[in-house]
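Subject: Sanity check before I submit

Could someone independently write out the structure tokens for this chain? I want to compare against mine line by line before I put it in a report. The sequence has 180 residues.
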Amino acid sequence: GAALVSATDSETQVGSGTWTATSPTDVRLVLRDGTHVAGIPDADTLSATAVALTNSGKILLRGTLAGPDINASNDEVYYLADSATGKLSELLREGTLLDAGDGSMRPAAKIAIFPNYSGSLTSGTSPFTDAGQLAFRVTFADDRQAIYIASASGDPVLIPEPEFAALVVGLAACCRRRAR
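---
Independent answer below. Compare away.
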């Protein structure tokens, strides 16, 4: 099996980061906090914490960006890291323009894993489905919300809010019928 570690290496002064390991001699750095990653301006950096794993070994990282191009409206980001290659793929970031469900493009003001994920790597729970999908609730500046599904490929797909509400009502009705 493989292990995932978020730690600070005080002995060699490499700093904090996330590593994977398949054995004591095969330890690989996934991300060192405060380093530049592809897809963001050169002077900006990412620090992140491993949040969950997919069944295929992909790592969900929740991060904070820092630098001259970053402010409170675009600093939170979720990445998916391939534990075998170390490749990072951005899933969703504050400030990203998204279809709000009515055809208008709006910047994401707040991002949360949906439903509220309270697990952790140490608890052994994961917000991912067996198919490697993950749901996010995005809140826009006008307090409207939409649900997006991200897959291991990193392509978020919108489920418009009214359809999502109908899905929840339908599932609740189904569960009530089974409980009787």
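---
OP: Matches mine. For the report I'm noting this point. The radius of gyration is 18 Å.
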